[in-house]
């Protein structure tokens, strides 16, 4: 399989570092971009013949480590980081490049996904968002037990949150429930669960994957993609089982194993529609010899077309 065939942007790939843990309860994800670079991400993608533009790191406010105010921790800082990331991501999409956001915690998806949605509206393209995560991230100020905004990006993208976050992309909501597929979910708060059901989000939780297998799960999640659909993958590293990916702040046992994760990525690559990517919640302070970052790079290679397939096409 040709790596070049998997990418819509003929101008190559852009790496955008967003070194912040301002939305999380556990510090350390701010070091994620460096760990991914050390693990050889740019070199791995370049092997597919794609120009790689490493834009370096965005520079935003520090993590003030303050308690929640009215159900949100660090709202002003999270808004600033996401506004910067929105502009950076949108700029690379308009240049015809495939942006990869190197997080940082998952609150950053508010900026990246709102930019992708805005670009798709401008281009008249359908959008599909694959949310690979142990958590639904559909909390709101009224539902959250912690106030941490990395548990709220999906809700904000669907228009449920403070205006400074829901209006990042110029349209509220940035996403509609029918554009979202959540995969690998296994830790959801009770109020959050009811909210997800009310909105009608398609969720393929770990029980579904256990019962039906990853192949069937991905066939369902990718069903209906058109030739011009933009596919955005938001990969929270805690999607993976902590036995293979210990370097995250919110580990949840019972996630996909190595081969299941590889199959997930290979089937996404097979569509040829990958248009943008987040890699978030990697926490090197909790990792073992950078193995989680190296695994993330391995999976990204599969997203770009690396395959163990030995059968004839």
The oligomeric state of the chains shown is single chain
| Integer average pLDDT | 94
**How would you name the CATH homologous superfamily?**
Ureohydrolase domain
How far apart, in Å, are the first and last alpha carbons?
A: 9 Å
Q: What proportion of the residues is helical, as a percent range?
A: 25-40%
User: Which descriptor suits the 3D outline?
Assistant: globular
What is the second-level CATH architecture?
3-Layer(aba) Sandwich
CATH topology name, in short, is: Arginase, Chain A
EC number: 3.5.3.1
Pfam families: Arginase
Catalytic activity: L-arginine + H2O = urea + L-ornithine
Keywords: Arginine metabolism, Hydrolase, Manganese, Metal-binding
